[in-house]
Amino acid sequence: MLVHLIVLSTALAAATSGKHGGVEVPEFGEPITNLTVPIGRDATFKCIVVNLGNYRVGWVKADTKAIQAIHEHVITHNHRVSVSHADHSTWYLHIKNVQEEDRGQYMCQINTDPMKSQMGYLEVVIPPDFIPEETSGDTMVPEGGTARLSCKARGIPQPRVMWKREDGQEIVVRDNTGAKTKVLAYQGEVLKLTKISRSEMGTYLCIASNAVPPTVSKRIHISVHFHPVIQVPNQLVGAPLGTDVTLECYVESSPKSINYWVKDPGELIIPSEHHEMVVRQKSMFEAEMSMTIKNIRREDLGSYICVAKNSLGDVESKIRLYEIPGNDRHIFQYPDERIVSEDEYGTEIYDEDFDEKNTEKSNRVLDKANKWYSNDGKIIVTNNSASVLKKASLYHGKSQKIEFDVNLNRRNLKEMLENFTLQAYSI
């Protein structure tokens, strides 16, 4: 290195007039600032010299001992390097489109005797990037198995890696003893999910960052495969002839199953105006399959089977459709009671006596019992202007309607409704 510096000092001296008598010795005005520059950006070193006079400024890359420039002339063959100055006191070394090989110490020299110099360091940082051959892709694992996801990233400084679920749910991590921990973010290059369940299926984000923009992420999807499962809310469904009725089955499967309906003992049901079929996908592995039978005929009564099949197996469940009477009418009159106007009590009364709140599933038969429900879970009372009586309507499911006349009074109405409910259960 000493030999190269002597060569540079000699070159700088040759560039001067050789007359230094009476000239003040130059000094550096301030230290050179170290630089940290992302790869591909530009870097500029500044060297301030006081009382330069006829002396010259040179730039050297200290680690390689390569002369970059002498005064206003570029010596290096690197076309990305240039020099400039302002008023012979501020000297600049410019490096465009910085690359990794530009990292290192740069020396600003003055050709005094002895030579004066100061150095600044150029740090080239690199944003994170994934190493493809060491990073996992989409993964399939059987339920109860283990999914091992790896995410390797490179960059300067070394990136940190963390994992998150794309849907914002918690990640379930189990230790060697099987104890579970739920976290929103998991730190580490390897994510291991043991005894995995269907609820852990989804897309996981591997995120790498090192404070150098941009942060990068990779999406890795985990598919958890399992045998289909069917749940039937109502295995016994009653409806009058001539009405519509909907049968429902809830399916869980992965991969997604093929779902269809069969009329016992084995007749495949094709979608038609009479049989309207819908499959609603509720999640990646949950689906609701329903079939509405329009204008029920006697030959429609009997058992129906919902079937779900995927590559791991198949499952089925049976629903029985039976006829219930549809022409009952009950008349209740209380002529001795005072008539109450709609303004006093409104049009919706005693809905606390009817605990069915789910209007979307009001045709379900819970615990295999046949229940009567009011329309949308309420008793609807309308005013008959030609009479002192009120008229109320009850519906079984959303199909059968039973009408009865009631005199709206506070004392007897609730008792009448309770009696009607008991009679409806006995039908």
Major sheet details: 8 strands, mixed
Percent of residues in helices comes to under 10%
Number of strands: 31
Poorly predicted regions are 1-20, 328-411, 417-427
Question: Mean of residue pLDDT?
Answer: 79
Cα distance spanning the termini: 107 Å
Instruction: Please count the helical segments.
Output: 3
Alpha carbon gyration radius: 42 Å
What is the 3D form?
Answer: rod-shaped
Structural class: mainly beta
Strand content: 35-45%
Description:
With 427 residues, the chain is mostly beta strands. Helices cover 7% and strands 45% of the residues. It is built from three helices and 31 strands. The strands form seven sheets. Strands 11, 14, 17, 19, 20, 22, 25 and 26 form an eight-stranded mixed beta sheet that branches. Strands 2, 4, 5, 6, 9, 10 and 13 form a seven-stranded mixed beta sheet that branches. Strands 21-28-27-23-24 form a five-stranded mixed beta sheet, with no helix packed on it. A hairpin with a 3-residue loop joins strand 30 and strand 31. The chain is rod-shaped. It starts with a helix and ends with a helix. Residues 1-20, 328-411 and 417-427 have low confidence and may be disordered.
Question: Concise description?
Answer:
This protein is mainly beta.
Keywords:
427 residues; mainly beta; 8-stranded mixed beta sheet; 7-stranded mixed beta sheet; rod-shaped; disordered N terminus; disordered C terminus
Fold topology:
Blueprint: H1 2-14, E1 27-28, E2 35-38, E3 43-50, E4 57-61, E5 66-70, E6 73-74, E7 81-86, E8 90-95, E9 104-110, E10 116-130, E11 139-142, E12 147-150, E13 153-156, E14 160-165, E15 171-174, E16 180-183, E17 186-187, E18 190-193, E19 202-209, E20 216-231, E21 236-239, E22 245-254, E23 258-263, E24 267-268, E25 275-281, E26 286-293, E27 302-310, E28 313-323, H2 342-345, E29 380-383, E30 390-396, E31 400-406, H3 413-426
Parallel strand pairs: 2-10, 11-20, 21-28
Antiparallel strand pairs: 1-3, 3-8, 4-5, 4-9, 5-6, 7-8, 9-10, 10-13, 12-18, 14-17, 14-19, 15-16, 19-20, 20-22, 22-26, 23-24, 23-27, 25-26, 27-28, 29-30, 30-31
